[in-house]
Design a protein that fits this description.
Helices cover 35% and strands 20% of the residues. The protein is of the alpha/beta class. It has a six-stranded mixed sheet with strand order 10-17-16-13-11-12. The chain has a six-stranded mixed sheet with strand order 20-25-24-23-21-22, sandwiched between helices. The longest helix is centred in the middle third of the chain and has 26 residues. It is elongated.
Length: 534
């Protein structure tokens, strides 16, 4: 156990500090402090010694230099059992400092503000704080270091229970978190200053990012793989990473992947929309004037595949929707198809919705219910990156946030799509963006009726989508995530009754494909962009 006789407290975030300081003061622990922290503690009736009084050196340079002094760092770094250190401390009038309570200037909050100037950002780079944290953490066998208000109660309780002493295990755990804290802080500064285009900095030489553990997972994609879920801090956009789970068992690795896929697709639509996701691909999706009908269309897109799906909606999860999920079933030769929903995610979950689902479906106790917040409250971060791990490295790219650009679309055939066909084409195009390549989607009346995902050829993807659509392909429209290199996939679509197609164009064989569309009586729209999803 290490006894704490003197603590140095200097914090930017003063949450919970008065109570913590009062508790250690009652244990007889001497408190050193600086500036605003010392003022606050005195106002609370807590006895404090100013760091400048202890060091005999005033704060200078507008507060830039306060704690950078040998009497501070000598007191932190001295090894208590080292006779040489003890003699030097006596010679220079240095007292041991046994605990440091420090959190840092709010650099990340500052640079997250609108129109922040570089000079303001630089002034919020803490120097003394990280230096004290690192000194204390290096000497963790003798010194405790606290870097977050969430640590106060646990440490205070242990001090109270052990006569103002802390265990070696606690000191070590605090030191580990302290080094993580300064590493995150330095990474944030380096990321801001090294942002491409800022002060002529060239991009690409190094990538640093920080993730924190949100939850451990029972296993990964398969039971023999260990797994955990780490998330970014400060992400305001509604997403699976900051969603709140309202009900159901713990999320699995595959649940999280599928919920992310479902949410990112349904976020694309302004009209009421619903999707059913299996293995990150939509087996159903629907848009309508009201959310109940949108869900019905999504479920009926492929009700057989929807067993065990993830449902995402872009409107509140209400008792009405819960009732539809629990009760509504597709008919299969006179019998209702079996159904089970792994998870539901929505902007909000209204009172009574979970109870309605539980009362209507025996399997509902196994369904995870999540809410992610109103889609309109945050704009997708266009500066954020899509990162994919490969063995020994990381691929980094911009997120694919491009959806429907009507100005870039061009009708290239003699036949033009009718108004409803154009609406369905744009719906199919958005769905296709979220299907694994090679990808084909078929839509009709605001409903995804067929999808061909992850095929090795575009013809195979078209065949798979047509098979899923069945008779519903007659009069429907089709979207392709990349160009048709040859007319063969188009001919397959025409045989099934497809009447309009949307695709990027740009192939050497565009002219032949367009000629085939005219010959087959199909309207074709080129978008000028592709949406591969590997």
């Amino acid at each position: 156990m290490a006894e704490v006789k003197t603590a140095l407290i200097s914090v930017s975030d003063k949450t919970g500090l008065p109570d913590f300081a009062r508790r250690i003061d009652q244990l007889g622990i001497k408190i050193l402090s600086t500036g605003g922290t010392a003022k606050l503690l005195r106002e609370q009736g807590i006895e404090v010694t100013d760091v400048s009084s202890y060091t005999g050196f005033p704060e200078i340079l507008g507060g830039r230099v306060k704690s950078l002094h040998p009497k501070i760092h000598g007191g932190l770094l001295a090894v208590r059992g080292d006779e040489g250190h003890r003699k030097e401390m006596q010679e220079h009038g240095i007292e041991p400092i046994d605990m440091v309570v420090v959190n840092l200037y709010p650099f990340e909050q500052t640079v997250a503000g609108p129109d922040v100037e570089l000079a303001e950002a630089v002034e919020n780079i803490d120097i003394g704080g990280p230096t004290m944290i690192r000194s204390a953490a290096k000497n963790h066998a003798n010194v405790a270091v606290l870097t977050a208000p969430g640590q106060y109660d646990q440490v205070a309780c242990e001090l109270e229970e052990n006569g103002a002493s802390l265990s070696g295990a606690t000191l070590y755990a605090l030191a580990v978190e302290a080094f993580r804290h300064t590493a995150r802080y330095d990474a944030a500064i380096a990321g801001y200053l090294g942002d491409p285009g800022r002060q002529g900095v060239a991009p690409g030489d190094r990538l640093q990012f920080d993730l924190e553990l949100k939850q451990g997972l029972k296993y990964g994609e398969n039971p023999h793989q260990e797994a955990a879920f780490y998330v970014e801090k400060g992400v305001d956009e509604p997403c699976v990473s900051n969603a709140d789970q309202i009900a159901g068992p713990a999320l699995s690795f595959n649940n999280i992947l599928d919920i992310n896929a479902a949410l990112e697709l349904v976020k694309e639509f302004r009209k009421p929309a619903a999707v059913c996701i299996k293995h990150t691909n939509p087996c159903g999706a629907g848009v309508a004037d009201e959310i109940g009908e949108a869900y019905r269309r999504a479920y009926l897109g492929d009700p057989l595949s929807a067993f065990g799906c993830i449902v995402a909606i872009n409107r509140p999860f209400t008792e009405e929707i819960a009732g539809l999920i629990a009760d509504y079933r597709a008919d299969n030769n006179g019998e209702k198809l079996p159904y089970f929903v792994e998870a539901v995610i929505a902007p909000t979950v209204e009172s009574g919705a979970v109870e309605r689902l539980l009362s209507g479906a025996r399997w509902a106790e196994r369904t995870r219910i999540l809410e992610c917040g109103d889609f309109g409250t945050a704009i997708p971060d266009t500066a954020s990156k899509d990162m994919r791990r490969v063995v020994g490295g990381m691929l980094v790219q911009d997120r694919d946030l491009l959806t429907v650009d009507e100005d870039a679309m061009e009708v290239v055939t003699e036949k033009e799509p009718a108004e409803q066909q154009m609406a369905d084409l744009q719906f199919a195009w958005i769905c296709c963006k979220h299907v694994k390549s090679n990808a084909i989607t078929i839509a009709k009346d605001g409903m995804l009726v067929g999808a061909g995902a992850g095929q090795m050829s575009r013809v195979d993807a078209t065949v798979a989508a047509v098979r899923k659509a069945g008779a519903r392909a007659e009069g429907a429209v089709l979207a392709s995530d990349a160009f048709f290199p040859f007319p063969d996939a188009l001919e397959t679509a025409a045989e099934a009754g497809i009447k309009a197609v949307m695709q990027p164009g740009g192939a050497k064989g565009d002219e032949a494909v367009i000629e085939a569309a005219d010959r087959l009586g199909i309207a074709m729209v080129l978008t000028g962009c592709r949406h591969f999803r590997h």
